[in-house]
Design goal:
The protein has 213 residues and is of the alpha/beta class. Helix content is 44%, strand content 15%. It has a six-stranded parallel beta sheet with strand order 3-2-1-4-5-6, sandwiched between helices. 47% of the residues are buried. The structure holds nicotinamide-adenine-dinucleotide.
C-alpha cells in the first residue's frame, strides 16, 4: 500500500535526471505517471538535452514498479502542444492529482558568441513560461477532480539569490527561477480554496547532466 495509490502525477522534463527520479519515486508510492520531455536539443544550450530513448526508459522504470506510464515528447514552450499532451494523458489515466513542473535549461556556461537575446528568450521561455504552459492546462483537471492536489515547481537556489558569472545565461537562469517563485506565491493563494498546495523546491548542485557537462 503506497501513499499515492490511485493518484496520477504529471512530470515535465521527466526523461532523465531529477524528473526521472521524481517519476520513479512517485510511481514507487503508487502513482501512475504522465511523463513529458522535449527529447531534443535547444541551440543556445550548449549541453545535450534528453533523448526519446531516455523518455522511453523512464516509462519502462515506472512500468517495472507496476504503475502505468504515458509518455509525450512535447516542448514546454509550446502552449497548444502542452495542452494536447496534458489533456490526452489525463484522458488515458483518468484523473490528475500531482504536477511537478521540472523541465528547465541552465545555459550558464554558454558560449559567449551566442546571441544574448536568443539566450535570454530560450531560458525564460523554457524555465518560466514553460511552467505556466504546464500549469494552465493542468489546473482545470486538478480543480475538476475536487480532491485537492499538489503542485511542485522546481526552482533552484538561483530562485533565492543571484548567481553570477558574467554571462546573460546566469542572469536569465536567476530571473527565471525567481519568476517561478512568483507563480508559486500567486497560485498558492488562488488554489488554496480547492485544497491544492503549491510549493517550490530549491535544489543546490545535483549530479545530473545539467551540471555534469
Ligand atoms: N542539477 C542541478 O544542479 C540543479 C540545481 C538547481 C535546480 N535544478 C533544477 O532541477 C530541475 C531538473 O534538472 P536536472 O538537474 O534533472 O537537469 P537535466 O538537464 O538532467 O533535466 C532537465 C530535463 O528537462 C528537459 N527539457 C529541457 N528543456 C525542455 C523543454 N523546452 N521542454 C521540455 N523538456 C525540456 C531536458 O530534456 C531534461 O530531460 C530543473 O528545473 C533545474 O533547473 C537543477
Amino acid at each position: 500500500m503506497g501513499k499515492l495509490d490511485g493518484r496520477v502525477a504529471l512530470i515535465t522534463g521527466a526523461a532523465r535526471g531529477q524528473g526521472r527520479a521524481h517519476a520513479v519515486a512517485l510511481a514507487g508510492e503508487g502513482a501512475d505517471i504522465i511523463a513529458t520531455d522535449l527529447c531534443a536539443d535547444i541551440p543556445v544550450c550548449d549541453y545535450p538535452l534528453a533523448t526519446l530513448e531516455d523518455l522511453a526508459e523512464t516509462g519502462r522504470l515506472v512500468e517495472k514498479l507496476g504503475r502505468r506510464a504515458v509518455t509525450h515528447q512535447v516542448d514546454v514552450r509550446d502552449a497548444p502542444a502542452m495542452r494536447t499532451a496534458v489533456d490526452s494523458g489525463v484522458a488515458t489515466l483518468g484523473r490528475l492529482d500531482i504536477v511537478v513542473a521540472n523541465a528547465a535549461i541552465a545555459p550558464i556556461g554558454a558560449d559567449p558568441r551566442h546571441d544574448p537575446d536568443e539566450l535570454w528568450a530560450a531560458t525564460l521561455d523554457t524555465n518560466l513560461t514553460g511552467v505556466w504552459n504546464t500549469l494552465a492546462p493542468a489546473i482545470p483537471h486538478l480543480v475538476a477532480g475536487a480532491r485537492g492536489g499538489a503542485i511542485v515547481l522546481i526552482s533552484s537556489t538561483a530562485g533565492l539569490k543571484g548567481i553570477v558569472n558574467g554571462s546573460v545565461g546566469a542572469t536569465a537562469y536567476t530571473a527565471s527561477k525567481h519568476g517561478v517563485v512568483g507563480i508559486m506565491r500567486a497560485l498558492a493563494l488562488e488554489l488554496a480554496p480547492h485544497s491544492i498546495r503549491v510549493n517550490t523546491v530549491h535544489p543546490t548542485g545535483v549530479n545530473t547532466p545539467m551540471i555534469r557537462n
